[in-house]
Amino acid sequence: MQDAPKYQDVFAEVNQYFVDQIARCERAGISKDKLLLDPGFGFGKNLSHNYALLARLSEFHHFGLPLFVRYVAQVDDWSTA
Q: I need a surface site. Which of 13, 37, 65, 70 has the fewest CB within 10 A?
């Protein structure tokens, strides 16, 4: 993970990354039915970035590809859980 990740607009940057990578795959002859999208929650993003992506997750459906989303929670204080 990155230290102090910075994004002007995390959704726009991840969305553009998907645009670029889908085009790259298509140029390489990989059909869209072999692809899925992973916004990378927790990887190079802070909690605020993750929440921003989660809030707009449905907007990635315009690609017509499955979304791969996983969440791993660590509870440090069970007394408040």
A: 70
